[in-house]
Amino acid sequence: MKKKISLIFLIVFTTQLIIACCDCPEPHKYQYKFEYLSAFNLDNSEANTVISESPIPRSAYGIKLQIGLRELSLEDRNHFSLFSQANAMCCFCGPDTTITPRDTITSLTITTTNRFDDAHPEGSNIAGLFKVLRHGNYVSIDSIIKQPSIYFKSTATEFIELYLFTPPKQAGEYSFKVDLALSNDTHLVAITKPVNLQ
């Protein structure tokens, strides 16, 4: 009799445990679209990088991109997903909100608005001379294009820091036009304010 009671208790407890483990809320899935682009001059010559309109050492120049994002409508939440079921069975619930890009960045060009050096006259794309600071490492621009950002909470802006790894040989005033080409055949364009690179 005691064995039967223990068995019934064990079955009830196990059932409650499984139900609790499987009680993951349906995730909220959104998309975001790119709204606007702003570009600022960065001075990386000190311990802290700052936005600057003052003269900047050529070897410490960077561009900070601010990309405006807008959340779009909620996707269908009543879909079947083996992944979410697997999460539930292992007593782990994934993020309750996921925001993915509706359109992706297909290319990022940085055009010099005046002569940069002998190999790069006015109008040249010099994006290859820049690297992106991502999680403490400098990576190529192409690497961030291939890995679009996914967010797990509402985000109104994304920031990208680009650093000039091959500065111009001549000091002078420079300005750069940044063009983000999107997969929906639109472009976001911003131009940095003219800055004196010393």
TrEMBL record:
Keywords: Signal. PROSITE patterns: PROKAR_LIPOPROTEIN. It comes from the Bacteria. Residues 1-20 form the signal peptide. InterPro entries: DUF5034. This is Uncharacterized protein DUF5034.
